[in-house]
């Protein structure tokens, strides 16, 4: 068997494996959306849940998911981006850098349920906040910090290779170079990592069970406050997200059509995660093209 035949066989095998992966994803997404197809309507998406009768919607849980997503990203992005800049541009080889990298790798390997239990002990009990939006956001930040830090570090390193020396040679300081030259070049990759992290937040359940809680209060948008627990914008109220609601429906069956509602909610969740991933690709490509001047 000559080299060309071996190459063709290997190529065919790789194409088959890739096709199987795509087929598995299509079957998985198709099955979930098909089961929840009857619930994909405005009444379901924005309606109030009904616990004593059939019907109801996921309006509260959908709002809680997006609100928790925003709070978690406000915590994660500055820390992850700052850590990436430090590791790529300021950190020197040595024991401290090895400890930092070991800590990042260890955090990245933690199961979400372990992070949830840590959040229960620290953010819920030790602080005395109880089950709150802020507790859930901090737990999610712990989950996403390692991946966002690595994405930011790699993006900054790859972006700085061609432009860093030129900027410094023209008299710019290191911070000016990072702020004006390197970060704009690295933004497409960093933004992709941010949107992918947002998709993970939207679908996370295990860590939020022990931190954000499993109750969703009625939303009164006329009450705007970050501290009043009766306000939908409060950081100190329980916040049942869509993923947690799906788990609760399947485990407790508290309404007559729990399976139908869970199916519809799962379909919405999968669609949102897919949208986050597609948006990450399209937005990252558009920003890259705008900076490089390509079409």
UniProtKB/TrEMBL annotation:
Family: Belongs to the binding-protein-dependent transport system permease family. CysTW subfamily.
Keywords, in A-Z order: Cell membrane, Membrane, Transmembrane, Transmembrane helix, Transport
ABC transmembrane type-1 domain: residues covered: 62-280
Cell compartments where the protein resides: Cell membrane
Transmembrane segments: 12-34, 66-87, 99-123, 129-148, 190-212, 261-280
Organism per entry: Clostridium rhizosphaerae
NCBIfam families linked to this entry: 3a0107s02c
UniProt-listed Gene3D superfamilies: MetI-like (1.10.3720.10)
PROSITE patterns in UniProt: ABC_TM1
Gene name of the encoded protein: pstA
Full protein name: Phosphate transport system permease protein PstA
Plastid keyword on record: no
InterPro entries: MetI-like, MetI-like_sf, Phosphate_PstA
Membrane-related topology note: Multi-pass membrane protein
């Amino acid at each position: 068997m000559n080299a060309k035949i071996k190459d063709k066989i290997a190529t065919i095998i790789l194409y088959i494996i890739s096709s199987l992966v795509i087929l598995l994803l299509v079957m998985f997404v198709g099955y979930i959306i098909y089961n929840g197809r009857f619930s994909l309507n405005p009444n379901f998406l924005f309606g109030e849940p009904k616990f004593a009768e059939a019907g109801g919607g996921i309006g509260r849980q959908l709002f809680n998911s997006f609100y928790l997503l925003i709070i978690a990203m406000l915590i994660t992005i500055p820390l992850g981006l700052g850590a990436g800049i430090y590791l790529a541009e300021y950190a020197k080889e040595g024991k401290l850098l090895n400890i930092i990298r070991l800590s990042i790798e260890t955090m990245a390997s933690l199961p979400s349920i372990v992070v949830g239990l840590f959040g229960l002990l620290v953010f819920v009990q030790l602080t005395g906040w109880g089950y709150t939006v802020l507790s859930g956001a901090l737990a999610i930040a712990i989950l996403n910090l390692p991946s966002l830090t690595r994405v930011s570090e790699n993006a900054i390193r790859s972006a700085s290779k061609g432009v860093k020396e030129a900027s410094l040679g023209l008299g710019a300081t290191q911070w000016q170079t990072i702020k004006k030259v390197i970060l704009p070049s690295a933004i497409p990759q960093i933004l992709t990592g941010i949107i992918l992290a947002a998709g993970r937040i939207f679908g996370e359940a295990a860590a939020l069970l022990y931190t954000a809680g499993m109750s969703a209060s009625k939303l009164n948008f006329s009450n705007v406050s970050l501290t009043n627990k009766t306000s939908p914008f409060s950081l100190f109220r329980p916040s049942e997200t869509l993923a947690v609601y799906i788990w609760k429906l399947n485990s407790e069956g508290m309404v007559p059509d729990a399976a139908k509602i869970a199916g519809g909610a799962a379909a919405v969740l999968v669609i949102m995660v897919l949208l986050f991933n597609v948006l990450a690709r399209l937005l990252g490509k558009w920003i890259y093209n705008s900076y490089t001047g390509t079409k």
